[in-house]
Fold these 2 entries.
Entry 1:
Amino acid sequence: MRVGYVQFNPVFGARQINFKKVQKLLKNVQADLLVLPELFATGYTFTSKQESHDLAEETGEETTIFLQNLAKDTGAVIVAGLPLKKQDKVYNAAIIVNDHEVIGMYEKIHLFNKEKLWFSPGDEGFKVFDIRPWKLGVMICWDWIFPESSRTLALMGADLIAHPTNLVLPYCQKAMTTRCIENHIFAITANRYGSEARGDDKFEFGGQSQITNPWGEVLSSGPKTGDSVDVIEIDPALSRDKKLTPLNDLLTDRREKYYRIS
Amino acid sequence: MRVGYVQFNPVFGARQINFKKVQKLLKNVQADLLVLPELFATGYTFTSKQESHDLAEETGEETTIFLQNLAKDTGAVIVAGLPLKKQDKVYNAAIIVNDHEVIGMYEKIHLFNKEKLWFSPGDEGFKVFDIRPWKLGVMICWDWIFPESSRTLALMGADLIAHPTNLVLPYCQKAMTTRCIENHIFAITANRYGSEARGDDKFEFGGQSQITNPWGEVLSSGPKTGDSVDVIEIDPALSRDKKLTPLNDLLTDRREKYYRIS
């Protein structure tokens, strides 16, 4: 399976410009799975709820169509972040598409800081998508800091995790090696880079998109700053045997009755 | 609060020699909390259940008395690993003592590889001990790979985690930075070093004992090989405010209803 990330520097509110940037970066790229950053087409630094509503889309609109065309051109399943409108709510979401269908949506469960002001928290739980013969889990950015996110996806049978991000803290890339070891799973973290100053906020996004294997080895790491696309071959089947020693299975060795959940 | 680890190379089955090694390393050391490795007085590489039973002790026996004298000499609460006999079972356990009492015991919940052949798995759950004014969680070695271990201790109110280890895999020290970030907690990992060859097994233990703060910063790191004692000043109160951003509290932001436990 050929999997990859697209790291770039979106311009706030300029959907068409961002589409063109991505399209250019993926010219002549072929893959089975491509992950784009969180909120890749709109930018990150919203300053009001009105703004996030104005830039949000429903499934099937402009961003969906762009991503499906991208799926057609690259042969890949695409996972990408967008502000998603559903009834009267807007979610920080990811859409999963191939060239002929919307495979699904994931609405971010753990919102970071002021995202709580602009978005509704995901209310459909974690989801694992069937992209035969593999099971794809999706989480978005800050979900990483809660070990329950990737653990839930692993328990649901995910072989790999697509992880669109807009990271402003320096911890995630190293932590993803632990997430992958503890669940014996692959992860593709697609981060943006560059700075964005709007309203009272100025963010620096740290790049360093990363593909991590079930032993916590970093198979690919993007630069801190700069466009970067990397596609590598992985075998997601390597995630399925959870035995780290002859007598230790990472999932069946769990002793649930001793775990507190609240 | 002055906390530290004792890293050394125990000799298998030679309790008195190991006591002397520890005593020598702690000569003139004063602290509030000292953590010794897993199975510090017996060594690790058991070859039969009979052997683990023969080297096991009940609370109050030789190892307890040694540790209480050590507590007297150093002024510290001591956490140390030992094979613990209770009724007809033997656990890979930790004992927590001060100069005048046994504060408690923790029986390792997640056994590593052949430990499953020599020990019974802990059946009393995770525990947090009151060492006023602080709350001390204890986990042993392989417990680290299950994020549920340190999460449970954090949810039980632990300010810091004492973590006796005999590490043979290279992942734990880096992972402890993630454990400390995700729970905003301190941890003291006390590892042994050296090699031990018995029966069919030969292990190399990796040293690098470590004190980690709630931001995942490594405050102290021992050598891969060699005796090492380090005592540093920490303020466990820094673990109590779980807000990593103005709007994000690492524990109350958890969305339990979406977490799978099995």
Entry 2:
Amino acid sequence: MTRYRCELAWLPDTGITPDVVITVTDGRITDVASAGAGSAVDDAEVVSLPGLTLPGLANVHSHVFHRALRGAAEAPGADSFWGWRERMYALAGALDPDALYALARATYAELVLAGWTSVGEFHYLHHGPDGRPYTDPNAMGHALVAAAEDAGIRLCLIDTCYLAGGFGAPLEGVQRRFGDGDGPRWAARVEDLHRAHGGDGRVVVGAAAHSVRAVPPDGLGIVAAWAAAHDAPLHVHLSEQPAENAACLAATGRTPTALLAAAGVLGPRTTVVHATHLAADDLDELARARSRLGLCPTTEAALADGIGPTAALVGAGVPLTLGTDSHASTDPFEEARRAEWDQRLATGRRGHLDADALLTALGPEGQAALGFADAGRLETGARADLVTVGLDSVRTAGADPVTAAAAVVFGARAEDVTHVVVDGRVVVAGGHHTMGDVGGALATAIAGAREAGA
Amino acid sequence: MTRYRCELAWLPDTGITPDVVITVTDGRITDVASAGAGSAVDDAEVVSLPGLTLPGLANVHSHVFHRALRGAAEAPGADSFWGWRERMYALAGALDPDALYALARATYAELVLAGWTSVGEFHYLHHGPDGRPYTDPNAMGHALVAAAEDAGIRLCLIDTCYLAGGFGAPLEGVQRRFGDGDGPRWAARVEDLHRAHGGDGRVVVGAAAHSVRAVPPDGLGIVAAWAAAHDAPLHVHLSEQPAENAACLAATGRTPTALLAAAGVLGPRTTVVHATHLAADDLDELARARSRLGLCPTTEAALADGIGPTAALVGAGVPLTLGTDSHASTDPFEEARRAEWDQRLATGRRGHLDADALLTALGPEGQAALGFADAGRLETGARADLVTVGLDSVRTAGADPVTAAAAVVFGARAEDVTHVVVDGRVVVAGGHHTMGDVGGALATAIAGAREAGA
């Protein structure tokens, strides 16, 4: 049992609350009390957490290997989404399970340092460079599970079905690594993955259809059915680029959203990622389905996707969640405030998503989108995730209890995260990851990935 | 004399260059050489600077007291530009010279920590709360000069003429603090300020017209004439909000840009700040005048201004410079990449402003916009400003010499700045400001400002 005394904590019922004692036993929160009412809070065992303590934050959309592209993806020649994709493919072609493990372990450690306690890995780098499966067809998935465990982050391994290179187009080049041939073979492989890891409380195996470009309707149905049968999260890229919408309309006469709805992909277990370019009917469809939005604002800016109708979706009842996708940035607060600020840029108005709404997106809604419905809240019975943000840095200085939520969401940065507990385990203390030099691990892993690709 | 050995340096002719020795004598760079050709680089005197060393970065647009609004300005009720302005005015009404000094000193220290070596303070908080001048009518300006000196940053004190509350409207409430009554009285006060500080190599006194809303045409002419007579920088807020354009057209039949052009405000010494909402003719006018653009991307997002035609302006030959304005963020790299990423969001295309273009905006163009034309370049004869960015953090790990410029501009953060030299003086070493705990200074200053305003 460990007791944490939080200077301020963000609680489900009372919002920002001063002087809260949180008791953790065997990875769960077993008590949340005000220090005044608490007993023995001056114990030597009590860990003091100055600043604002949040529940664990959930990064709903990660392509972990993209971390090696940061900076490099901004060099001349990558001047369209599709030009960028060529660079990403060159890297994707080079990674084997060992290189993926090293890159994922270091990048996941970077995520925990930033306050993320869960990550949803949208995983489609399945097979060998020529498309032939590894001896264990889930070798790459196992590498991701091991990396998450070693980095101290909880993982939703969103195994992604990727069958086509476009409407009616076969997989080509590096895309052959992504494909299982058909839906049933995808489902059989994922079933093995689920058998290997599904019983682990720190791993959820989820399902994804990469996009309407990459999965024909019968495949979409198989993916949706697998997710339903396993009560698993179901994710899908949706309308990230206008070209996808145009191709979908030309090939099927439907918008991507309508196509997903018809195939049974939309529903409460579903998170649609990006949803940048939607028609009015698409918004209604997503709201009716009670699906979640997985917004990735820094990546959507870096990839020139555009600003989607976030406020309209949230207004229609679609819960917001957030992810760092390509890891151009890994800062939860930057993603959160960009969600609001991008709406301001698009509309000329302020006040779409306030600090509480954005913390809800980062915390409970994000965790639920990854199958961790028992995380993301500082309450008795929940998973013991604690993320403490210092309020004494040059960025956060000046916050008071009244303004702390806004000061953190709109002013703090990943660098202000001082202490991270994941399922009761201390992973970050004093701003340092228990695994040591994460920058060094990243440098080694990225150099290794580039050499493999050279 | 001090010698710095830079692992990588961004040089005017060769771009990113490995192993550069920079010699500094009496605040100037007296030699730039490759270490191979250098003598005695293994001296005990040589200071090693691992990472990428940049020239000094110039923050062309600061309202320093807005730092106290970070977070607080995001609370409910501040949901339009004009609602935000009410909060800002409440704070502006409360500050006296001592409170302004304390807030400016701490905020300027935050800026130096982020790599800014010059700041352009767009200063209009001149007089006492009821509009009556202080015993010394430049008491507030002197406070800013002292704060900059104590924080170790170079200052362009852009004294701002502010005469009206709108087209044909008098100053009201807190705005009375801003006004000198008429143009000649503004010029007389600024002349005194120039006499007091203009001979100091670390202070430039510049001139500004707040906006076409706040300065009638005859006042615009007086401000422009003062700047021309003193060869001083001339700044102006331009078309930040559609409402300003509409009011200007209604009152004068001209766009703000056309009005400024007619009044003689545009020219090579001029920096137009924001320029968010421009007509096609306005772009041509600014390009013909060879004025600079002072873009403030995070503030323009936070205030719901919108995305301006940055790429079109730069394409037309208008040099880009950058500022942090309301200090919602003080990160030069965030401003720089937002300048590009916002264009991507607006156009759906990448590749408008590359890393070199953005470093040029932060460095030499920004410094020139503040009257420090001899800063912003790592070359013999220039002011000895050095800003070193570590390449071993979780943010920058993976950069190599080929990608370092892009890795820094598109991936680094203020927190990666390890060493800052301003005019030969070491102000930041090992990521710490020589004045000590800047977060603590900010907390104290902000609490003081809020108490005064309560």
